[in-house]
Amino acid sequence: MRNRLRDLRTGRGWTQEQLGQALGVSRQAVNALETEKHDPSLDLAYRIAVMFGRPVEDIFDNPHA
Amino acid sequence: MAIFKTMDPAHRRYVIRTNLFLAGYVAVNVAAIFGAFDEIIGESAGVFLGLAVAALIAGQLWATMSLMNESDEFVRALTAKRFIAASGLAMALFSAWGFVESYGNAPHAPGWLIYPLFWGLFGLVSPFLKSSR
Fold this sequence. Notes:
The structure holds 2 protein chains of 2 kinds. By secondary structure, chain A is mainly alpha-helical. In chain A, 58% of the residues lie in helices and 0% in strands. The two termini of chain A are 13 Å apart. In chain B, helix 3 packs antiparallel against helix 4 (73-104) and helix 4 (73-104) packs across helix 5. Chain B is flat, with a radius of gyration of 18 Å. Chain B is 74% helix and 0% strand. Chain B is mainly alpha-helical. Classes of the chains: A mainly alpha, B mainly alpha. At the A-B interface, helix 3 of A face helix 4 of B.
């Protein structure tokens, strides 16, 4: 799923490891999200949205829209 | 050791559990090869030796399931995908060999080979399965 996670993360100067720790997931999971190898669950997508203070749709493109 | 330190807690526990179960598996089989169980091999009591080795294999599979249970959603999905691919391939290959044995007089392959075959295939498919989808 196309997303702006890498831009948002690097914009805050965070490493994948740091973002993973903040979200409670592994660095591999953050990398997989950024490289579109993993579509997040609704729960994880909302956690990411809260972390960056944006709606989910601002971070993840809706593939059905 | 450096790699171990960079692992998340779930993977560290998995490595420790896997090493313990595999060490037991190797120890029992090496002991059997060197004659430690010669008195019971081929006797009824030998069944318990076989079940003891099988229990260690079940323990290793439990360690893998625990890794999936304790990991995040990406690692869980990826491990499940690799596990299913490897077990499917192992079943297909071993079944094929069984039929070749039955119908083509191929040499007999003992059933315990499916376990190392499964993990060999798990290692083989893993570099090709990097997406959770």
